[in-house]
Write a structure and sequence with these properties.
Blueprint (H helix, E strand, L loop, with lengths): L1 E3 L5 E5 L2 E6 L10 E9 L2 E8 L3 E6 L5 E5 L6 E6 L5 E5 L4 E5 L2 E6 L7 E6 L6 E5 L4 E4 L1
Antiparallel strand pairs: 1-2, 2-3, 4-5, 5-6, 6-7, 8-9, 9-10, 10-11, 12-13, 13-14
Amino acid sequence: TYTGAMTGDVYVWKENQLATIITADKGGHRGPVFSMFTYVSPKGSSIVSGGKDGDVKVWDAEMKKCRVFKGPAGKRVRSVCRAAGSKLLIGLHTNDIFELNGDKFVEVLSGHAEGELFGLATHPSKPIFATASNDKSVGIWD
């Protein structure tokens, strides 16, 4: 189990005991961690995190190796999730949705609503996703 903290640290738990703390100088985020999820693919499982620093980090299952993907300058990552297939969707505080394509962020949707984006979720088998904003709106996109 993994927990992201407002300090940018990532806590790794074994059962109900704290096993490891990954700080910014050891690969954690440089600011609050807003989103984490486990990504399972035919190549194995990974832990994905996104935070205020605008980075998306893809960790191996042991949280030892990390690939860092820099988001658009000045943008905060609010949510990360798996899209249909093996793509990652990234929701930014500006209500923009990006897909991680190789090492690049490719814009999928601009402008969910009036407020900031706080939620992003995909359908498990269909190519649709939902967004939620602090303006109390939910959008369904295909």
